Amino acid sequence: MQSIKTIYKIGPGPSSSHTFGPMMASKYINEQYPEATNFKITLFGSLALTGKGHLTDKIILKTLGTSKCEIIFDMKTPVEHPNTMIIEVFDKDTKIAEHTFVSIGGGKIEIDGKKGNVDPEIYPHTKMDDIQVYCNERHLRLDQYIDEVEDSDFDSYMNQIFKQMLKTVNTGLKKTGVLPGSLKIDRVAHALHQSAQSCNDIQDKNSLLLSSYAYAANEQNASGGIVVTAPTMGSCGVLPSLVYHFYHDQNYPKKTIIQGLKVAGLIGNLIQTNATISGAKAGCQAEVGAACSMGAAFVAYCQLQNNEQIECAAEIGLEHHLGLTCDPVGGYVMIPCIERNAVAAQRSVDAARLAKYLRNVKKNRVSFDMVVQTMNLTGKKLPIELKESALGGLAVVVPCLLYTSPSPRDRQKS
Fold first, then answer.
1. What CA–CA distance (Å, rounded) separates 74 from 199?
2. Per the count of CB atoms within 10 A, which of 9, 210, 319, 398 is most buried?
3. Is residue 405's pLDDT more than 50?
4. In the β-sheet with 38-44, what is the strand arrangement from edge to edge?
């Protein structure tokens, strides 16, 4: 299992698989072929179906050069992975190279069937059950286990992640207006935050504050702002909202929060290793479900729960998102994504609270590893229409009259 750094990355929204991944593929081409004069990029599967709403074409044009690119949206050719793209490289009229890229989630890419910029496998375990046994034998907390494995600059890296999460939320709270795109969605984070300030009921106030932070992060993501994958950009509001709330409102120490982020990252890493964090592969259970699981582990750690309670919290967070579909209206990371992150942040707190007391009265029958396996199997059973294709669910029920999906022959030249 690779470093937790692979779970947390800083970059532009709105999608780790549809924006960040294609950006990394384009950067690879720039580095390998500085002599290239023009490019032909063909997007397949989910990249073709929702690429416009996810700004896939814009990030490619920005990275490779708007005067050099021809982009084709191919929605008919079947591909093994839904996030596949081919980049043909030309020197004037002569094709000098062709590469197939797969955006596998979380900003990671595979190049011609091989993982790009492969990070070393540093963790000795790939299952929570094995990690628990190891920690029990050595009397380690989960965060101590992580610190035992990660390298010397890990704390510095996590400090950057912590700062960016706070910055993303803070920036989003200050902005008003309408999000880009044909849906014409109003930003509401600022208004929600103001409503929270006038709340007399402390429970309502904390709930609204947490929601406003999730909205703030996801509205930044939807507008192409800088966010942190946690574990993806479509689910980038859950953990940052909890971090912001626990740091600014609940006054938890920075050290505790960063250690909690490490534990949350371990949960995301296990999900990524044993299943997927890609909505195009397994629906939103793999994105917001995974983020809720990570958030629940974060809350449980910060509240000084033991390793078994933390696992139980993470298990509850993911279990009750099983089967969650990814059906972005108009192909934008807005409906239901933004509100869904706010709801999942609330559920993270609930899952940690329930786990704290459940483990005192009974042994958990369903392990975290079991739920991850179930999520993976469930994702394989979901139809393509409900896996980030904008062909089913809310995407075909909610009116989006101004949005027109690119046709199979749609080409963009700039």
1. 50
2. 210
3. no
4. 114-115, 108-111, 94-105, 84-91, 38-44, 69-74, 411-413
- 181-212 confidence digits (pLDDT tens): 999 999 999 999 999 999 999 999 999 999 99
pLDDT value of position 117: 58
Task: Extract the runs of DSSP E, i.e. beta strands, from 92-243.
Answer: 94-105, 108-111, 114-115, 226-228
Report the alpha-carbon distance of residue 181 to residue 62 in Å, rounded. 18
Query: pTM of this prediction?
Result: 0.90
Mean pLDDT (whole number) for 100-104: 93
Nearest one of 229, 160, 169, 242 to 15, comparing CA atoms: 229
Exposed, middle or buried: residue 175 (CB in 10 Å: 0-12, 13-18, 19+)? middle
> Residues 6 or more apart from 85 whose CB is under 8 A from it?
22, 25, 41, 42, 43, 44, 47, 100, 101, 102, 103
CA atoms within 13 A on the CB side of 330: 22
Rounded Cα distance between 184 and 191, Å, is 17
